[in-house]
Write a structure and sequence with these properties.
Elements: H1 3-10, E1 14-21, H2 26-39, E2 44-46, E3 50-51, E4 58-65, E5 80-83, H3 86-91, E6 101-105, H4 112-115, H5 124-134, E7 137-141, H6 143-150, H7 156-166, H8 174-184, H9 190-206
Parallel strand pairs: 1-5, 5-6, 6-7
Antiparallel strand pairs: 1-4, 2-4, 3-4
Helix pairs in contact: 2-8, 6-7, 6-9, 7-9
Length: 207
Amino acid sequence: MTATGQRKENMNTIRLIIVAVGGQGNLLASKVLGEAALLAGVPVRMSEIHGMAQRGGVVESAIVMGQARSNLISDGEADILLGFEPSETLRALNKCNPDTVVITNMAPLPPFTVAIGKGTYPDLNQLQTLIRSKTQRLIAFDAVALAKQAGNVMALNMVLLGALLQTRQLPITPEQLKEAIRTKTKANLADVNLKAFDLGYAAGQDA
C-alpha cells in the first residue's frame, strides 16, 4: 500500500459546516477547500448550497473529508464550524458539540429586519461567551478588516480559510490550499487572495 493510500485509510472523517450571508463568498471558499482536498489526496464530499445565495440571504454548506458515505451533517455532528457572519455562526451552533472548533468573523452584517427596527442583533460579547461554553475552541476576529488590509473586502473568504488552516484540523497543508486559491480564483485577484489567506493564517494563530 502506498503512503497516500495508508493515510486515506487511517484518516478520520472530518465534518465542516460553513455559514454565511449571500455575497460573502461561501461558495468559492467551498470550491477552494474541495480543490485543496483533492490536491492532498483526501476524499471529499460537498453538499449543495442551502439557503438563498443572493446578497443578503442565508447560505449554509457542508464539506465532509475522509471515508464517509454521506455529505449530510446532522445536529451535533460538526467537527468544525466556519462562520462568515457572527449571528449566523450563533444560529448554526446546533450543529456543534463540546469537541467542535469554531472560527468566526466578528464583523456584523445585520439583517434587514434589524435595520428597520423589527429585530435585535445579538450582543457580540454574549455571543462569544455562549459559543465558548458549548464548544472546545473559538477563534473570533474581525476578518473584514483583514480582507480590506489585503486589498479587497471580498477576500473575506480567503482570510477565513487562512484561520481555518491554522487550526490544523484539516489534512491539508497551507501550500496545497494556496495552490487551490491560484487555480480556483480569478488570476487578477490571486495576489490579494493569497495575502488575505496569509493574514487570516496569522490571525488564527494570534486568536
